[in-house]
Each structure stands twice: as C-alpha cells, then as structure tokens.
C-alpha cells in the first residue's frame, strides 16, 4: 500500500514538473527564443523608433534569437495601456501620458528621452487670428485632453496671455483629433487653431491651410521638455534589467544614427510615416520640421516635474504631482 502511494506521488510530481517545463518552453518559444514588442507614434519626435525598426537595431543588442515586433499608436493613452498590460515591453510616448499614468499608479519608468522640441501653435487661414490673444472664443485642437502638446499650449496661454479653456471656466473651446488630420480640418473650417507635433505643423504650412502663430521656442517648455520619452515597466526594470539595458542601448544607437546621418534618417521617417499613416510627406516638409527638433536620449527629471506641476495648475491633475521614482537614468550612463 505504501509502495503504491509513493508511486502515485511520484507520478503526480512528474506530471507537474512536465507541465511547468512545457509552460516555460511556450513562454520562451519552442526554440528557446524570446519575443518583445516596441511601440511608438508616426511623429517626427519618434524618429528613433523608426530608425531602430528600419535598421533592426534591437536585434543587434538583444540576445540572439529574440524576435522584435513593433506596434504603432495614435495617442498616449493607448500606448500607456499597452505598457501597463504587458502588450509592449517599451517604446516612445509623450511625457504627458507617461506622467499622468505614473501619478495614477502605473508602475513605469522613463529610462531615456527621445527628442525635445517640435510643438508648434498653428492658426487656420482665414480665422483672423493674428496673435494668441485673438484665441478668446475660438476652438483649438490637440491630440488629447491633457496630452503633452495640450499642456504646453494651455500653460503658455494662461501664464502669458491670461486665456484659458472652457474646461476650467475660460474662453477657448477644446476638441481632440489625430494630428495627421489637422490640415484638412483647417481647410474645412472645423477648428481655428491647433497645438501640433511635427511634422504635421510643417504639413499645414506646406498646404497653406494655416500659419505659424507661435513657434517652438516660444511655446511653454518649447526647447527643454522631452517631446518623447522612452518608457518601460518597473517590473521589467526589476526582474530583467539586462533586457532593459539592451533595449535602451538600441534606442541610444538609433538616436546617435539620427545625429550623425540626418539625411538618411529623414528618408526613413518619410517612408515609415507613409507606411503607417498613408501620408506622403515631401522632403521640404521634413526639412522644415527637423529644424524644430533636437534628437537626444538624455533625460532631465526636473523639467518633467516642472511640466507636471503645470499640468496640475491647469487642473488636469487632482493632486499636486510628485514624480520621484519615475525617471531612471541608470541605463543611459
């Protein structure tokens, strides 16, 4: 009887160990390979993502056999949800969504920057808007409520001109939409002004549907705020720092490539934006947009904290934010 009982226990343990072995094998792939997904937006501020994909730079820094997938996002909220659910391992997003989700409890880290600059305030042709004060009673568009470009614009309007949106009892109406559609919305007369990430401001200029009202250096945090940050989960940082280092190393390689090979990087950007958005951008549009952006992976936590405070003062956040622990620069040193 005891012998039979021992045999049963042994059989049960064998099945359990076999099941565990099969589960691990499936997670890693039948050939032992790993699989990760990187996300970014079809904006000029995210060219490092495009270059890294085109040049297969993640495969160069990750362990041999790692399969790298890419996912493209229309807005920061969708990107952050993908990070939090593990749909993607990392990628580029605006600092606004990263900051907002962190404050709301998301376990994430900003491990690098992607670029600075690139936000432009545009006025619709025929809107009779000659300066920012003329935006009283007008409708403006941004990619999202409380997104990076929205906060930059509303901070400037409040601090420099005393004009706010109806959301906080002011005079401007706010709507949201994809930046690639802004030029057509201007042409249709649906909105009066836009806070626009490049290259879409240069598209509006090229099509003649609008004009620059406030250029990048004069928008709040215009040349100092990271226009894109590289985000991953705290879980990945804690449990697989080697993977995070490999991912950041590829991002750094892509950024250095942009700095050293701007013309080839522009071609990559034109092709990828066409592939993702079906928008044909001319070389002149990209050249114009490029002048407003600085590509860097260096990240300054203080600038993000100041930006977060501005978001709170605009009532996008209920509580005064504390971003301690959000930025982790150990992977870019």
UniProtKB/TrEMBL annotation:
Keyword Ribonucleoprotein carried by entry? no
Example GO molecular function: ATPase-coupled transmembrane transporter activity
Please provide the record's keywords in A-Z order: Cell inner membrane, Cell membrane, Membrane, Signal, Transport
Where found, per UniProt? Answer: Cell inner membrane; Periplasm
Domain of life the protein comes from: Bacteria
Q: Name one GO cellular component term.
A: plasma membrane
Record's Pfam families? Answer: NMT1_2 (PF13379)
Task: Indicate the transmembrane segments per the record.
Answer: none
Q: Which family does it belong to?
A: Belongs to the bacterial solute-binding protein SsuA/TauA family.
The principal localisation class reads membrane
Which protein are we looking at? ABC transporter substrate-binding protein
What are the boundaries of the signal sequence? 1-18
